Amino acid sequence: MKIEELDWAETEWGTISLRRRHDRVTDKLVHEVKLDDDFLMSSQFTLGEEEVARLGLAAVVGDRLRVLVGGLGLGYTAWTAIQDPRVHQLVVIEALPQVIGWHRSELFDDTRGLATDPHVQLVQDDFFDLVRSGRTEEPYDALLIDIDHAPDWHLRSDHGDFYTELGLRSAASMLLPHGVLSLWSDEPPESVFVAMLRTAFEHADAHVVTFANPLTGGESTNTVYLGRGPRGAG
Question: Is residue 143 within 8 Å of 131, Cβ to Cβ?
Fold first, then answer.
């Protein structure tokens, strides 16, 4: 099967394109998103994105949870989160309207129904500006974030202030006293960033997510950072 281009558009972030192809090694139908020449996301391996939700929500105590997802992408973090029966409201912030449109058009079998779930809101907005400006009306039980490649590898230069003590404290202020921040990274754990998380949260650590990679014949890893208990909350 040749590569099919399902959609493309010029955006303020660059040229975004959604492609579909059959991978012969994994025998999977794979969706890929490119931003200019950069591969932004893929449905080839999704465990890391799913674990952002699983690990984050596992650290939250309580029911009728109000959860914010930063970055919709192909939807795996949001989809995994809404499978948790405790999640009562899931707000997903996505900067690019094209991405939201893909889900409203039900292009992805794996996350079909996400856009129409009555507990889910897909909102076009800039997550980092939302944090920076404090435009949150009510606090959340969890922030689940999958936007940049890593704390030191950003899609845009104006994302950088989020990964500072001030930025992380601003994120922590959006959470309830028991709240949790969960952040995906495509790089190995960085002790410097864990230490920075501890300036905003009572507890912080990094979890390595390991998965088989048939393309390399070995294993690959992602990292999920967790910050629990915002400092100064309550």
Answer: no
CATH code where residue 131 lies: 3.40.50.150
| Cβ atoms within 10 Å, residue 153 | 12
What is the helix (H) or strand (E) element at residue 98, kind and residue range? helix 97-104
The three-state secondary structure class of 115 is: coil
Q: Two tokens at 211?
A: 């998965």
Domain with 100, as residue range(s), is 45-230
State how far the Cα of 29 lies from the Cα of 163, in Å rounded to an integer: 34
CA distance 227 to 223: 13
Which pLDDT belongs to residue 1? 57
* pLDDT tens-digit map of 108-161: 999 999 999 999 999 999 999 999 999 888 999 999 999 999 999 999 999 999
Q: What is the pLDDT of residues 83-114, one digit of tens each?
A: 999 999 999 999 999 999 999 999 999 999 99
Number of domains in the chain: 1
Query: What token pair was written down for 66?
Result: 């109000």
Q: How far apart are CA 197 and CA 200, in angstroms?
A: 5
Closest by CA to 165, choosing from 193, 134, 207, is: 193
Residue 74 near residue 106, CB atoms below 8 Å: no
- How many other CB atoms are found less than 10 A from the CB of residue 88? 12
Residue 154 inside a domain? The answer is yes
Of 165, 173, 100, which is closest to residue 130 (Cα–Cα)?
173
